[in-house]
Amino acid sequence: MSCELICSGWFSSEETRTYKTFGDDSIRKPSFRPIWWQSVDTFINPHHVLIVDSASPVKSDDQLYTATKFSNIELLKNPGHSQNCETHYCGYMASVILGLEFALHNDVDFFLYIEQDALVYGKGFLDKIKQMLLKNDFVFGGNICGEIEQSVFAINKKGIRKFLSALNEINYTDRQIGPELKFMYAASVLRSLPLAGLFSFDNSRIVYRSSTELFTLLMPILKQYSVLPFGYGRVRPINFYDDTFYFQQGSVDEINAYKKLTGFNDTLSR
Asked: What is the DSSP letter of 72?
């Protein structure tokens, strides 16, 4: 299994955001793309990259930074962030679902998602993911307070259709139930049961908290997914001496530490 395809999303805007964000603001701008592409090309080396553009007002000229073949799908409107989206799926989930469909119809061995602000490291990065996919159809990022992390994740070919089906059966928007919980539910033994509404923000605070806490507590016996055998996603601190890792929402210091480690140049053109 080589890496036939990875998928990512894209959105960048100079407008003031109406939702909470983390990390240095550069990770949401085209100036971050040279580092992202060097990260992807060096440590994953995919045959093709699919980028789902959420009607971004600011574009990135990616052909300047990579020789890897890539395709763009641009949405007609920006679905928004999960905190304030007015459509069923937010922009992140739109990129995941379109990417999964693209992977399915191109009959790739597995789907690998790398978020637009995520950087990866390690010559064994892809091999470790492949080893996990031999054991389970779904491989998500490490836990944050019991919930999975989604900036890097992978799904086997045979898991794509059942994951898509389970996601689409959840009749709650991403604003009502966050993507992390939707992922966990869709990759658990509960996915065929009509219980997702228990985790909606529309419930009373006590119902929401008690339901989600019980759900995450029982995940070790309910889950049908594995967790990446390395950090970090949004988890901190990052150990830059690890032989394999990834992270998103990087600060200036973290991005500079990564560039020092890799020797990547954020002004590089191919």
From this structure: E
The H or E element that residue 91 is part of is helix 91-105
How many structural domains does the chain have?
1
Query: Is 211 contained in some domain?
Result: no
pLDDT of 173-189, one tens digit each?
999 999 999 999 999 99
Residue 210 lies in a domain: no
Give me the CATH number covering residue 84: 3.90.550
Task: Assess if residue 45 is contained within a domain.
Answer: yes
Enclosing domain of residue 66: 5-159+225-257
Sheet holding 226-227, edge to edge: 69-74, 48-53, 5-10, 110-114, 147-156, 138-144, 226-227
pLDDT digits (tens, 9 = 90+) for 40-85: 999 999 999 999 999 999 999 999 999 999 999 999 999 999 988 8
> Distance (Å, rounded) from C-alpha 158 to C-alpha 3?
16
- In terms of pTM, does the model score above 0.85? yes
CB 223 within 8 A of CB 188: yes
